[in-house]
Structure formats: structure tokens, C-alpha cells
Amino acid sequence: MKNLLTYTLSIPNHPIRELKEKFRIQYVMGLGEFMCYISRRDKRAKLVFEAWAKSIETNLPTTYWRGTDDYINLRNAIALKRDGIRFFLMRRIFFFDCLYLCSILDAKLLKTAYGFLYQHIRNFIARKVLNDIYTNWNLESINKIPVQLLNHRKINDSFQKKPLKKILVVATMNAGKSTLINALIGHRVNAVKTTACTNKLCYVYNKPCTDGIIIRYENGALNYCSNIDSAQKEGFVEAGLHFNSSLAGSNICLIDTPGVNNSENITHGEITRKAINDNNYDAIIYVENCQQFNTDDDAKLRNYVLSHTNKPVIFVLNQLDCFHPSHDSILDTMKKIYEITKQYTTSVIVPVSAYYALLLRVGDE
């Protein structure tokens, strides 16, 4: 099963957008009927279809996720034609979309989708067109398929071939962990509060292009929202969006963890320590609060990290905007951290102001 959070699912330059509204609706209704049948009403398939269809036609009819006994919506979409464009080009585009969306869901679904379409197409020429697309599916170019569709697939495929890097982000409470994650993402995704707010592991994935946000909540519900800022992010456990930062080209996942020193709920520390011990990540970002450097809680967590992982550790000395030049020294603090961590050759120290970095990315609200 693929991780949909790392795929771009919308396509603002889809060729069907050029058609009149009634034809756009005819097209997406047929595509919706197909995806509904082929996936057996799977919620992941619905999410993929909605993201794709809404970038073609924003006003989707309420019946888009239903079927008809005679597949009339599917047949109407296959029958689309347009003056000025080579005969049956719309049919080719429709077949490509059907197969492409299925391949995003699961590579194994591609063959099933082809068989379903072939079975319900009565026209010999249409079957020949479908065979041509399916036979040449793995080629970079497919006969008469518009370049914007092929480029969309190419970008997704190229991104998925990059190895996924998982980065575990840990800190004591109020170190600025959520602010740092938001700055690395380039969007306000994580809630930033002065009290404990992260009570579980939260995974935030990058995807190849600007494409709204996909969210999976604690209850298993999935949601796609084209506007990242307006999306409901409370209670999410996974999210996928395009990072607005230097990480934009990376297949990367930032894993937010609960603060270990929450006196009101000891399970927070247990969750974080288990995540550290599981080693299901490629590196750790440890966020140091420069105002509370080397307090008992901070020292305990830092020592726990260093003694329970063999992965690289990045020590982020955060909240430098709160340093007072008259009696605080960034260099001295970095030297102290270096003395503590120098035996660990895989660690580096980075001084930052996550809050200032976030303001540079997204501005103040």
C-alpha cells in the first residue's frame, strides 16, 4: 500500500479544464463512477479522485461518488469529443486518468483497472486505444497523451524513487520544537502553545509540488484541503504537503514527539523514549532551549538521546532571539554543548531562532 501523503494529487493545467462546464462535469462524473467501482468505495480512492477532480471542476455534483447500473457516466465520459482537437483525444485522456489514479493508489490496481475498462467498453476502436495506453504504460511517453499529464506522472514517479528520510524531533517542553518544525516546513502546521500540546507522534511528509494538504486524523479519517492555512489540523497524526523551505526537493518526514517532562502526563515521556529506542528514523533533531540550557530535565533527555541511538544527532540551540548580548554568549553555549557531545562523532550543533525563521517564511498572523 502506497503512502498517499507523498504524492501530488491535483493538476491545475489538466487539458479538460479548457472545456465548457457541462463537459468538465461529464468528465469527472465518469471518472468518479469508475474510481468508486474499481476501489469498492475505498476512502483513499475517494480522496485521490476528489483532489484530482476538483482541480478540473471545482463545483462537483453531490452524486459524483456513486455508480449507475448501466455505467452511463463512465460511457458518457468515454464518448467526449471536441472540435479542433484530434478525434477521440478526450477518450485517451480519460483512459490515462483512470489508470494513473489507480497506479497512485496501488500498482497492483493498474491491471484490475485495465480489465474493468476493457470489459465495459463495447467499441473496438476504444479498446484499441485503451490497449495502446496500457501496453506502453511504463514508457516515458505515451502516444497522443498531453505532455502536462505525462509530466505530472514523471514528477511523482521521480520523487517516489528518492529514499525517504525520517527525522525524529525531540525536546523538553517549551523548547520551541513545534515552531522549529513549522519553520522547516514553511507553514503553520503544528500548534504552538506554552503548555504541553503534542501527546502523540505526528508525522509530516513532504511531497513534490505545491498541492494543498492531506491529513489523517486520530480516528482514521482522511481529508484533502487545497488551502493549507484553512485546513483543520487539530488531532492529526499524519500530514502531507509541499515544504516551503530548502527541504522542498527532499523525500523527507519530520516526526514530532511529545515533551518528555510533562508532569501532568507521564505517558508523553514514554512515547518519546520508545520512539528513540525503536530507531525507526535516519537522524534526530534535538532542540535545546538556550534559556534553559542544561537544566535537569534538559540534561536527562539529552543524555538519554545520546545513549540510546546510533543515528546522527543535530543539536539545535534555539530561541537565540531571547539571548541578551550583555550577559549571554552564543559561542560559549555552543562550546558547552560541544564538550558534552564531543564523544559522539555523529552530532552537530546549529544555533537558530526558529521563531524568526518562521516569520521569514510565513509572516506574522
Top keywords for this entry?
elongated, 14% strand, 365 residues, nine-stranded mixed beta sheet, alpha/beta
Describe this structure in words.
By secondary structure, the protein is an alpha/beta fold. The chain is built from twelve helices and nine strands. Helix 4 crosses helix 6 (124-135).
The averaged pLDDT comes out at 88
Cα distance spanning the termini: 38 Å
The topology string of helices and strands comes to HHHHHHHEHEEEEEHEHEHEH
**How many DSSP helices?**
12
Q: Name the structural class.
A: alpha/beta
Rg over CA atoms: 25 Å
* Unreliable residue runs: none
Biggest beta sheet attributes: 9 strands, mixed
Shape: elongated
Oligomer: single chain
Helicity, as a percent range? 40-55%
Q: Tell me how many strands there are.
A: 9
Strand order, main sheet: write it out: 4-3-5-2-6-1-7-8-9
In what range is the share of β-strand residues?
5-15%
